[in-house]
Amino acid sequence: MMETWAQTGLPFMKMHGAGNDFVVIDSRGRGAVVTPALARALGDRHRGVGFDQLAEITDAPGADFGLVFWNSDGSQAGACGNATRCVSDHVMRGLGRDRVSLVTARGGLRAERLEDGRVAVNMGPPQLDWAAIPLARAVDPLHLPLPGDPAAMGMGNPHCVHFVADAEAVDLATLGPGIEHDPLFPQRTNVEFASPLGPDHLRMRVWERGTGITLACGSGACATAVAAHLRGLTGRRVVLEADGGTLEVDWREDGVWLTGPVARVFDGVLSPDYLAAHR
């Protein structure tokens, strides 16, 4: 189908959840379209469209749809909670329903729309074992042998969560790249810095693997909330203030639920010339 779209152009949507922004391409019934080269080109905010992640909707037997996530450097993200919520809202509207099932690299997930218009997704159980996160060697994931005593957590992608007195004071642009590429993380890692605002209320800032600083991160919010609870800092239900808005995480028996706002910003079509240049 790439040959057909090369003649007609490729439709896409621009969406965001709490400022965490996405390009969404629907490949259902057409075959996979996104390549690393196209993801890199689209991720360029000057020469492409720009995104924190690209979400490709796919066919998924036994579920309403599937999702594949891409970073702006052309790598795959593995999990993306806010994109999952945004695309779930789009699919629910198309189906005229308030609940959907989907499949990602993590396996089967569920999403639902709340009465207030926010969308919640069950991101599945956290990955707490060092090998599952994954880490390069057997260490205590809740107390990594790294500066700042961070915790490691997996949500279908790896996270390194730091608890600090003031997340606003952290030089994220300087610290983020080094932590992302630390040898302890064989698949690199997302990086979070969180500080307390009140009971079960955290300020969170994020450096995303393969992307950089983002206004919010759904899987990062989940990892931060789980790590905060396991460290005895919060209960299992946590409100997190990201740069772009508020997210809520509830670690239940059936998985970690992420809730927050969704927005569909605009629809567009990638031109045949652009597609030909970035195959």
Q: Care to describe what's here?
A:
The structure is a single chain. The protein is of the alpha+beta class and 279 residues long. The protein has 2 domains: 2-123 and 262-277, Diaminopimelate Epimerase, Chain A, domain 1 (Roll), CATH 3.10.310; 151-252, Roll (Diaminopimelate Epimerase, Chain A, domain 1). Helices cover 21% and strands 37% of the residues. The chain contains 6 helices and 16 strands. It has a 16-stranded mixed sheet that branches. A hairpin with a 2-residue loop joins β13 and β14. The longest helix is centred in the first third of the chain and has 15 residues, at 81-95. The chain starts with a helix and ends with a helix.
Keywords, separated by commas or semicolons:
279 residues, alpha+beta, Diaminopimelate Epimerase, Chain A, domain 1, 16-stranded mixed beta sheet, 16 strands, globular
